[in-house]
Amino acid sequence: MPTAAELDRYLDTAFPKEIGIPGDTGGIMLLADSGSSDTVVCALDVTGPALRECVSRGAGILVTHHPLFFGSLDSVRCDTPEGKLLIFAARHGISLLAYHTRLDEVAGGVNDCLCRAIGLSDFRTLGCCSRIGTLPFPVDAGEFAANIGKSLDSDRVMLFRHRDSSSVVAVCSGSGGGILRDAYLAGADTLVVGEAKYGCEKDSAEYGINLITAGHRETEQPVLPFLADTVRRGFPGTEVFTFYA
């Protein structure tokens, strides 16, 4: 039964700060109760439904991938989304912890989970918070995109097709369009991301790389079992639940 501070110290070891993007927000975002909690909930984001799940489970700690806010807050107001959630969490004694880009980058984390979910093997680090791997055999690009939709339970998959098939695939969960050039230079024929800006969509044609966007949330939620298992390993007597938006 960890306190929020004890859990944060443990997760700082499991997901070291130095592997994340410098200056990224993370760790304890709200310490609402200094006591221990025998129940922890893991979710992608701090949301009203996730916090209500904590209340229903009697959980005093919510661990998320995304921080509720980035940097510092000038004020906490009940008429802003962040303020409403912080006030709700504080009133119910729910401490908030987040591990953002370190969870993206750590071995077994967000991008490794995404690679496994879409069927890649022999994947390796491509750059910060990205991976590159191979499919067992070349797959028609349209079929590969459809398979991704099924694997991630996403109805938001879009394919920008510039090659017939997919074989060598780069991935970057969430807003991953910035690695397009790295994917091209590494020999990828396809890039899979959560979302991409118009410039990435346009440039994928110039590079001749298939671009598949599958949804920010959908490309990151596969990490939740890994996150929950990491908490359980550190505190075996703690009940840990995953909450899917």
Determine the oligomeric state from the structure.
single chain
Structural class of the helix and strand makeup? alpha/beta
Q: Summarize the amount of helix as a percent range.
A: 25-40%
User: What pattern of helices and strands is seen along the backbone?
Assistant: HEEHEHEHHEEHEEHEHEHHE
Number of helical stretches of at least 4 residues: 10
Give a written overview of the molecule.
Helix content is 36%, strand content 26%. The protein is of the alpha/beta class and 245 residues long. Helix 7 links the parallel strand 8 and strand 9.
List the topology elements.
Blueprint: H1 4-14, E1 27-30, E2 39-43, H2 48-57, E3 61-64, H3 81-91, E4 95-98, H4 100-105, H5 110-117, E5 121-127, E6 130-140, H6 141-151, E7 158-160, E8 165-175, H7 180-185, E9 190-195, H8 198-207, E10 210-213, H9 216-220, H10 224-234, E11 239-243
Parallel strand pairs: 2-3, 2-11, 3-4, 8-9, 9-10
Antiparallel strand pairs: 1-4, 5-6, 6-8, 7-10
Keywords:
6-stranded mixed sheet, 36% helix, 5-stranded mixed sheet, 10 helices, alpha/beta, elongated
